[in-house]
Amino acid sequence: MKYPVFDNHVHLQRSGRFADAADEFMRKGGSAMLLVNLPPEGNPCSPDFFETMYSEAEKIRNEIAERTGLTVLLAVGPYPVTLIEMAEKEGLPAAEEKMTAGVELAASHVLDGKADAIGEVGRPHFPVSQDIMEASNRIMAECMRRAREVSCAVVLHTEDPHPSMMTRIAELADTAGMDRGRVVKHHCTDLITAEENSGIFPSVKATRELVRSSAAKGARFMMETDYIDDPIRPGAVLGIGTVPKRTKELIESGLFDEDIAWKIHDDNPSSVYGADRLTARRSGN
Fold first, then answer.
1. Three-point CA angle 142, 119, 181, nearest 5°
2. How many domains does the structure of the chain reveal?
3. Which residues pair with 183 in a beta bridge?
4. How many whole angstroms separate alpha carbon 35 and alpha carbon 45?
5. Which residue from 46, 109, 232, 238 could staple onto 115, CB 3.0 to 4.6 Å apart?
6. Angstrom distance (rounded) from CA 3 to CA 265
7. How far apart are CA 280 and CA 103, in angstroms?
8. What is the C-alpha separation between 88 and 18, in angstroms, rounded?
């Protein structure tokens, strides 16, 4: 019985290994991935900044899917730390307005079928001023509202998770009318139970320790490498073949079987991103 392997957070860029990395992922057993846009070089306050970023990500997704045959979902959205650079250039009110416009543009790309989710969005993962954090939370709430409107998932970049923080994220989702199960915590730890994550969907960093701990608790999680395809830091955050490797290790160790692998790598992405989106991307649409 062959099982799928879905990496829930991958960045690819033309200055990196690009399609060679996708080829390696497939050779090592990968079948599908969520590609996440990277901010381009240049002035983030320029009028076409977000359109350039989203369009390039869509081109990369299409090229990778065509070359490899992989199923490639795509998340587009304004990277949270971009707000800080914008605020330094133009002030926080203008920066928040432009980030919100970037969220609206991302939602329109999803609605037009060019992208599949809004992400990675949220708030900085390091200490910032209170006004930056408050603006970031407003932008994150807008991401959830817009995702609800276009019926897609949101992939969140935030500080490291803990149960009370996940509860606060879940409350934001409730206020926005967003299904908690379609709010994905990127770079998550092994907080996979409802008591630990309040219904937010965990995307677990695929270290050996974290995936083993997660698998011992259940199967409601996805795995990710957060591979950034940086030629200066090859293999960061985790190597592109890590998720297939970890899945094989878990099966061989008896922590789960191939039926559970199907749950983690197919049923879970289908529930989060939409089975129709996965089906369409599998068929190359």
1. 75
2. 1
3. 154
4. 24
5. 109
6. 8
7. 24
8. 32
Is residue 146 within 8 A of residue 107, CB to CB? The reply is yes
CA dist 26 and 28 (Å) reads: 5
Q: Which residues of the chain have pLDDT under 50?
A: none
- Report the pLDDT value the prediction gives residue 42, as an integer from 0 to 100: 87
Burial (CB < 10 A; 0-12, 13-18, 19+), residue 130, is exposed
In a domain, 248, yes or no: yes
Threshold 0.85, pTM exceeds: yes
In this structure, the strands spanning 183-188 and 222-224 are unpaired
Q: Check if the beta carbon of residue 225 is closer than 8 Å to that of residue 235.
A: no
Q: Looking at residue 85, what is its pLDDT? A: 96
Is 145 in contact with 117 (CB distance < 8 Å)?
no
Q: Nearest to residue 227, comparing CAs of 200, 245, 205?
A: 205
The answer to the question of residue 147 being in a domain is yes
* Closest by Cα among 233, 214, 247, 235 to 28: 247
Is residue 49 in some structural domain?
yes
Q: What is the pLDDT of residue 285?
A: 64
Judged by DSSP in three states, 207 sits in coil
CATH number at residue 194: 3.20.20.140
What are the start-end ranges of the E strands in the chain?
A: 6-10, 32-36, 71-76, 117-122, 153-157, 183-188, 201-205, 222-224
Beta strands 201-205; 6-10: pairing state: unpaired
Q: Kindly report the backbone phi and psi dihedral angles of residue 183, in degrees, each rounded to the nearest multiple of 5, phi listed first.
A: -100, 115
Residue 282 is predicted with a pLDDT of: 87
Which among 36, 47, 130 has a CA at the least distance from the CA of 90?
Answer: 47
Q: Say whether 277 sits in a helix, a strand or coil.
A: helix
- What does the DSSP 8-state code read for residue 219? S
Give the list of residues 6+ apart from residue 57 with CB closer than 8 angstroms, or none. 35, 36, 37, 38, 74, 76, 115
Q: Is beta strand 153-157 parallel, antiparallel or unpaired with respect to 6-10?
A: unpaired
Range of the domain at 39: 6-282
The amino acid present at 62, given as its one-letter code, is N
